[in-house]
Specification:
It is flat, with a radius of gyration of 15 Å. The chain contains four helices and no strands. The relative contact order is 0.14. It is mainly α. It has one domain.
Length: 105
Amino acid sequence: MRTFALFIATALAEIVGCYLPYLWLKQGRSAWLLIPAAASLALFAWLLTLHETAAGRVYAAYGGVYIGVALLWLWIVDGIRPTAWDVAGVAVALTGMGLIMFQPR
């Protein structure tokens, strides 16, 4: 459970770090948003270092969780409800994440 919670925190840091520049570039918001965006991306990189397994495996498994968090972000922040296909895709991605992270060692 600790690993999954860490993945969620990592995904949120990455999404915020990318969403704020998007607001600046596409919606004409303040360039000052780049400061918290950079801090969020630095937090993202640091959070990745807290995972105990090999970096490549962490990045591969993290992708599955990122997909789920990104679709939740789409729903909560952007107000676009995920489709059944989106949910199925998340289920497949999270299954893949579980296979990668929780394999016998």
